[in-house]
Amino acid sequence: MHRSMDEPTGGAGLPGARSHPTARPGPPPLAGAGGEPLDPAVLGALLRRHGWQRRGGAPGRYGRWTPPGSAAGTTSLLVPESAAFPDSGELIEEALDALGRSSAPSARDILVSLTLPSDEIRWWREVPESAAGAAGAAGWTEADELRSAARQVLMAGALAARGRAGYHGARHRRKARAALDDALIGPGADGRSLTAHLPVASGRAVAVRLCHALHATREAVDYQRATGGMEAFDSAVAAGAGRELTEALIALVRGSEGAGIDLRWAPAAGVPDGCPARPAPVEFSPGDLPALRAAGARYLRDEPAVRVRLTGAVVRLRRSGPRGAGIVRLRVLAGAEVAHVRVELDEEAYRIAGHAHLVGLPLRVEGRLERRGGFRLLTGASQVAPVQVDEAERDRLMKSLQENVDFFEEACAGEEPS
User: Fold this and answer.
1) Nearest alpha-carbon partner for 118 in 218, 3, 217, 240
2) I want to staple 115 with a disulfide (CB 3.0 to 4.6 A). Which of 21, 70, 300, 357 is the partner?
């Protein structure tokens, strides 16, 4: 779904994975929009965001920046106030080179944001301090839980960016994952948080939707805890809230003393319309868990079935005997935002599906996608008919049949929850 900022170059890494910009010596090739030189104001904003301190410099010309914490005495950057000065390009190059060699943990995040203009999302959890925590690190289980919850939050935002729904189930997931393909994720500078960089070009819609959805969910939880009413969760759906987000927040908070999410916009891209320039961090506590669980159950229960007319390739068939009704599994080609569906067919429709499968033709069918099982069960099937396709597509479907001939005999019941 997204790449770690610590993935090595080459070797057995994920296909298409890119190394972290600081994996090579010297400054990365940076430029602003349209190939223009890097704007010093963007660098200054990122330094300030990550806790670097400005300590003198000629007013109106340049500032000297040092990192926070113990690294303050090891690195010093001279950053011009504007690109208009003759030596600004040289100063920027020297600053980037110093960042690339800096031992300050935040230098990595700054270089990532400069190399790839990105909105930043940071997660943290408050947990009882362990030996690892005392050393400024996170235990294996703690880090794994945080990363898993962060991935769930990102997916919830990507799904909400595709469309508003109290419960998405299996819908929209392929396109949601594609929206996160270029995201980078890695440990925060403190070793106990996690930071994701969503490139503006492909991920800003996700970041914007998450900003609205998180604050709407926080307000709905406050309302429920104050009044006992759940109606605020219903109105929060329009902002992007839903079961996927409540489940992600439960995973983030569970087992902790509290957790939070902080979102910062890419300085190079500016503030998106309808969003605050500096969104407030959103925090949740164990006391919020009952409200989040009740909201998730409500979203699941109230999401309606969807009437669809879809086209799919038959990949599995099953019935208990040589005659009668049966169950068919389709790989969806068009008409529904899910990868596969199971369809309950009467004897005649099942015969049509079997024939289409044998000759390599897709099937068209109408029915209702039920929310149970994540919108992967089609009931009330009607208008079942094969669809004519060109020879190239038919050959491809036949090849798929030959490679997966065992699917004919496999049971499809029980593969997906109902």
Assistant:
1) 3
2) 21
User: Do 335 and 273 belong to one domain?
Assistant: no
pTM: 0.73
Cβ-contact 81, 88 below 8 angstroms: no
What domain range includes position 283?
A: 118-302
Domain boundary among 283, 302, 321: 302
**Closest C-alpha among 283, 255, 292, 264 to residue 144:** 255
Residue 235 has pLDDT above 90, yes or no: yes
Looking at residue 186, its pLDDT comes to: 83
DSSP state of 255: T
What are 210's two structure tokens? 């998450």
Residue 349 burial (10 A CB sphere; 0-12, 13-18, 19+): buried
Checking if the pLDDT of 396 tops 80, the result is: no
Closest CA to 69 of 123, 116, 107: 107
CA pair distance 55, 65, nearest whole angstrom? 6
Q: What is the pLDDT of residue 24?
A: 35
Whether residue 255 is contained in a domain is answered as: yes
Please check the confidence at residue 214 and state whether its pLDDT lies above 90.
yes
CA distance readout (Å), 44 to 81, 151, 177, 213, 418: 8, 30, 33, 30, 53
Domain end point (choices 275, 302, 329)? 302
Whether residue 413 lies inside any domain: the answer is no
Domains held by the chain: number: 3
pLDDT of 189 reads 62
Is the distance from CB of 365 to CB of 384 less than 8 angstroms? Answer: yes
How many Å apart are CA 139 and CA 88, to the nearest integer?
43
**What is the distance between the alpha carbons of residues 154 and 244, in angstroms, rounded to a whole number?**
10
- Regarding whether 282 and 241 lie in a shared domain, the answer is yes
Q: Is the pLDDT of residue 308 over 70?
A: yes
Angle between helices 106-115 and 88-101 in degrees, nearest 10 = 130
**DSSP string for residues in 375-394:** T-EEEEEEEEEE----HHHH
pLDDT, tens only, 53-110? 887 766 767 778 888 876 556 677 778 877 777 777 788 888 888 888 777 777 888 8
In this structure, are residues 154 and 206 in contact, taking their beta carbons and an 8 Å threshold?
yes
CB atoms within 10 A of CB 290: 12
